[in-house]
Design goal:
- The structure is a single chain.
- The protein is of the alpha/beta class and 349 residues long.
- It has 2 domains: 198 residues, Alpha-Beta Complex (Quinone Oxidoreductase, Chain A, domain 1); 139 residues, NAD(P)-binding Rossmann-like Domain (Rossmann fold).
- The protein is 26% helix and 25% strand.
- It has 11 helices and 18 strands.
- Strands 3, 5, 6, 9, 10, 17 and 18 form a 7-stranded mixed β-sheet that branches. A 6-stranded parallel β-sheet has the order 13-12-11-14-15-16, with helices on both faces.
- It is globular and about 60 Å long.
- The structure holds nicotinamide-8-iodo-adenine-dinucleotide and zinc ion (2 copies).
- The site of one zinc ion (ZN) has 5 residues, from loops.
- InterPro entries: ADH-like_C, ADH-like_N, ADH_Zn_CS, ER, GroES-like_sf, NAD(P)-bd_dom_sf.
């Protein structure tokens, strides 16, 4: 039975903190499902949302969260292909219009009128969350709901970004911010895709995590005397990595990547530091034929593929489960850059 009230973490004002309190359980509309969220990963995006870092208005009061895995407990009258009791997930793209030129071509991440979980609509830091049936992730019954939660944003996003990088098996990819949430999944997906990885992050903790996750080399951005030279050296023949996936939450590495990427290589921007700009020399970009592009989550097919990599046991990134009531503590660690891998909140307490 679905209760009328539930526990949630609510952002009541820009900058936070989150407030742990009881709020009503919403009812699904005709094309929606209600998911009893069991676990939800904490993405740096949730912190950007609370702090109002981006030039995109955020709902207030707000229930954040967009890596929510759970069990379907109710569905609207139009929903035919999801049963009560199925496992399903709330991802960043809660819904999209389904009729614009982008949605028609499965580029739904750039739909001009999307519903964003934990941003423009309430997300998964609550016990019962609503998702558009067309968009909720289908999660196979043999998946562990805690472990699969971060696939719904971190895994999906880096899997798509690696595809966008055009890196082929055997090539070298630099993962910038490799010890963080997205980064640790990027190392695992890259390994599963047969790529060499150059992990870039800071500190002994992150170094150890990255090497355990299969990084070919680790470059410490905090202690390296010459990041450009170190990254190039790590690329086998010394000409630089074929692709760079930028996941860091600071501007500097976005400026640096064009210095070490291989000629004809691809730089994929994924991290979203506030008020940041990409600057690259026109001369080098032209004569070295460098590609610089953005990548934003992934579509429903990417979601299914990213989950399938996980289901096959190819993706094992470190995570720590803590009570939903302690979400603010997770944000405090994240602000200090002290999280290796992902924190996951358990909505039961
Ligand atoms: O679809 C998208 N494009 C998408 C999806 C999900 C998340 C984008 N994001 C964005 C988030 O909003 C955030 O801006 O990706 C960024 C990374 O999210 P995250 O992985 O959840 O954050 P994290 O766990 O805090 O990891 C960030 C890592 O970057 C490192 C930190 O040490 C940390 O491990 N880092 C920083 I800050 N500066 C660095 C530098 N100069 C750096 N690593 C290398 N070089
Ligand atoms: Zn996210
Ligand atoms: Zn659309």
């Amino acid at each position: 039975d679905v209760p009328k009230e539930q526990w949630a973490q609510v952002v009541e004002q820009k900058g936070g903190p989150v407030v742990y309190k009881k709020i009503p359980v919403a009812e699904p509309g005709p094309d929606e499902v209600l998911i009893n969220i069991k676990y939800s990963g904490v993405c740096h995006t949730d912190l950007h949302a609370m702090n109002g870092d981006w030039p995109l208005p955020v709902k207030l009061p707000l229930v954040g969260g967009h890596e929510g895995a759970g069990v379907v407990v109710a569905r609207g009258s139009l929903v035919k292909d999801i049963e009560i009791g199925d496992y399903a997930g709330i991802k960043w793209l809660n819904g999209s219009c389904m009729s614009c030129v982008y949605c028609r071509q499965s580029a739904e991440s750039v739909c001009p009128s999307p519903a964003l979980s934990g941003y423009t609509v309430d997300g998964s830091f609550q016990q019962y969350a609503i998702g558009k049936a067309a968009h909720v992730a289908r999660i196979p019954k043999d998946c562990d709901l805690a472990a699969v939660a971060p696939i719904l944003c971190a895994g999906l996003t880096v899997y798509k970004a690696l595809k966008e990088s055009n890196a082929k098996p055997g090539m070298h990819v630099a993962i910038v911010g490799a010890g963080g949430g997205l980064g640790s999944f990027a190392l695992q997906y890259a390994k599963a895709m047969g790529l060499h990885t150059i992990a870039i992050d800071g500190g002994e903790d992150k170094k150890q995590v990255c090497l355990e996750l299969g990084a070919t080399t680790f470059v410490d951005f905090a202690t390296s005397k010459n990041i450009v030279a170190d990254v190039k050296k790590a690329s086998g023949d010394g000409l630089g990595p074929d692709a760079v996936i930028l996941l860091a939450v600071s501007e500097k590495p976005f400026q640096q990547a064009s210095e070490y990427v291989r000629s004809k290589g691809t730089i994929v921007c994924v991290g979203l530091p506030g008020n940041a700009f990409i600057k690259a020399p026109v001369f080098d970009t032209v004569v070295r034929e460098i590609v610089i592009k953005g990548s934003y989550v992934g579509n429903r097919q990417d979601t299914a593929e990213a989950i399938d990599f996980f289901r096959r046991g190819l993706i094992k990134a470190p995570y720590k489960v803590v009570p939903l009531s302690t979400l603010q503590d997770v944000y405090d660690l994240m602000i200090k850059g002290q999280i290796s891998g992902r924190y996951i909140v358990d909505t039961a307490n």
